[in-house]
Design brief:
This protein is an all-beta fold. It has one domain: Methylamine Dehydrogenase, Chain H, CATH 2.130.10. It is 3% helix and 48% strand. The strands form 6 sheets. Strands 2-3-4-5 form a 4-stranded antiparallel beta sheet, with no helix packed on it. Strands 10-11-12-13 form a 4-stranded antiparallel beta sheet, with no helix packed on it. A 4-stranded antiparallel beta sheet has the order 14-15-16-17, with no helix packed on it. The longest helix has 7 residues. It is globular, with a radius of gyration of 18 Å. The two termini are 20 Å apart.
Amino acid sequence: MKRVVAAVLAFAAIGGGAALADGPAPGASLTTNSLFASGGRWYTTAMRGHQTVLTLWKVTRKIRRSVIDGAFGFPVPTTDGVGEGLSHDGRTLVVAAGTSRFAVLDSRTLHLRRMIQLEGTFSYDALSPNARTLFLIQHASPTSPHYYVRAYDLSRGRLLDRIVFDRREEGEAMTGMPLTRATGPSGRWVYTLYSRRSGSLFVHALDSVDRHAFCIDLPRKAPTYWRPELTLTPGKLVVGNSAKRLAVIDTRTLRLVS
């Protein structure tokens, strides 16, 4: 199974629609300067010289502000432009800066817990519900389309040696582009829809608690100019949109239903 990685230039070119070309990220995560949480809370980032001002808001009122060195933003792991970085339990916030640099903060106080700088080319992929694990995309090189999913143990402050993969396909190279994703109600399962150069599609199901993954190939290719959606219903993941349904996956068995 070949999987997918977001590219800033590719995202700009396709405008958020389905992309049918593979491509490596050009050395940095795509980021946005705003991120919405629950209860009317939201976060913003703004540059001030060589520093980033991170602000927590409650509707229109400023609640708290923090300043960190460098140019940081909220990571956008898929081409639909949706920012991420807030853990499901609402206690941890991760922001990204350029290549392989991440800041981990307390989402309520905006206190900096940890600054991560990794050797090589890494970008944000996902965060476990209680922020025990930060999942990253490790690129083989800045110009290669191949990459691996890695797990960073935030409690211990170290990158784990084991690559996160579908055990049925150990050792196979990964390429492509992520289109959109959906997260289960507990935050444990993260489902990402990917496209290959050929237009074929698959869903990457990441268990962010047990740190393993499954890939489900879909029977149909991506229609031209299609804007994909993933919709979770009890026990099922629907791939498609209001105009066209492409597949249904049983989230208990991770098998295609239709």
